[in-house]
Design brief:
By secondary structure, this protein is mainly α. The chain contains five helices and no strands. The longest helix is centred in the middle third of the chain and has 28 residues, at 76-103.
């Protein structure tokens, strides 16, 4: 793919992402962020397989940044034990991604992807349940 075509494709994908985020409710926004982490891990793994160290590092750093944003958005007081456990999982995932990147260890990338998939599955269920429950107005 030419550089111009690759740039145009990235621009198009970016516009689609902006549209999805602007229309998202809070549950969907978290889903999108988790999907983004999974996509970045998959990209990092692909770059690892092709020996593209710089691109692997970029994708890993972006995945860590998104997980960091998810972590920063947690309200441990309101979320209690669930939020505290998510914080631990997010912290662990960031450390493991950095290690996977530095060691070129695909198994660690897969480990973190599995963790994120499980979190996303739980979040998907919460979102479906929240949307199915009618809003109560005072």
């Amino acid at each position: 793919m030419s550089v111009a075509a690759e740039h145009a494709l990235k621009k198009y994908q970016s516009m689609g992402a902006v549209a999805a985020v602007s229309a998202a409710d809070p549950y969907r926004l978290v889903q999108l962020m988790l999907e983004n982490v999974l996509q970045r891990i998959a990209a990092a793994r692909g770059h690892l397989a092709r020996g593209e160290a710089a691109r692997k590092g970029e994708q890993t750093s972006k995945a860590i940044a998104v997980i960091g944003a998810l972590n920063a958005s947690l309200n441990v007081e309101a979320g209690g034990e669930v939020a505290a456990n998510l914080r631990l999982l997010y912290d662990y995932s960031c450390v493991r991604l950095a290690l996977a990147n530095s060691r070129n260890d695909d198994a660690i990338f897969e480990e973190v992807a599995t963790i994120v998939r499980r979190i996303k599955e739980g979040w998907d269920g919460i979102g479906e349940q929240a949307r199915a429950t009618p809003a109560v107005t005072p």
